[in-house]
Amino acid sequence: MAKKESTFTNMVFTLFLVTLVASAALALIYEVTRGPIEEAKRLKKMNAIAEVMPDFDNDPGSEIKKLGIGKDTLYFYRARMGNELTGIAVESFTYSGFSGLVRIMVGFLPDGTIYDISVLEHAETPGLGDKIVKSKSFDKNTGLSWSSQFGGKDPRNFTLRVKQDDGEVDAITAATITSRAFCDAVQRAYDGLQHLTNELEIDTISDSTKEHNAE
C-alpha cells in the first residue's frame, strides 16, 4: 500500500481533526463537572453564611440581593428565624491584598453590628497574610483568630482601619497590606449594607445612623 503523501493540506486537515476531538472532549468534561463544581461553591457559601450568622431556619440563598461595585459585586443574604430577621450576611471583596483578590463573608446583626467574618477566597502568603483565615491561630495565649477582633464591633463607632492608619484594628505582624485589605472588604460590606437598608428590611441601621450623625 502506497504511503499517503504528506502535504500542507493533509497536515492542516489532521490538525483540524485533532483540535476538534480535543475541543469536544474538553466541552464534555466541562458539562459533566460544571454541576458538581457549582454545587460545591454554593455549599461553601452556605456554610460560610451559617458560620457568620446567628441561628436561622430559612434558606438565605433564596433571598439574594446584589449591588455592583466597580468591577465586582456585593451579595446580601438575609437570615431569618420564622418571620424575624436575625442578620444579613454580605459577600464582600477587595483587590488590594498582597496577592490581589480577597473575598470574605461578613455577618451583620439587624442593628449593623458585626457578628462574625469568614474568608471565602485568598492567595495571601502562608504563615503571614493567611492568618486572616479563622482556622489560623493568631493569639497564642487565647487561641483566638485574628478576625475575632471584629466580632461585636459597630462600624459606626469602630474605625475599620489598622492602627498604623489611625484605625482601631490590630494588624497582622509583617502582613499590614493584607490587614488593610481585609479592613477594606469589611468596610465595603458595611457601606453596601447601608446603601440597601430599605431593600434588606433593616431600617434600624439607617435610623441609628441618622441619630449617630446628628450627635
How would you briefly describe this protein structure?
With 215 residues, this protein is of the alpha+beta class.
**Number of folding domains?**
1
Mean pLDDT: 85
Protein structure class:
alpha+beta
The rounded Rg comes to 24 Å
Number of helical runs? Answer: 3
Biggest β-sheet description: 5 strands, antiparallel
Assembly annotation = single chain
Ends apart, CA distance between termini: 96 Å
Task: Please give the number of β-strands.
Answer: 5
Give an overview in words.
The chain is of the alpha+beta class and 215 residues long. It has one domain. It contains 3 helices and 5 strands, in the order αβββββαα. The protein has a 5-stranded antiparallel β-sheet with strand order 1-2-3-4-5.
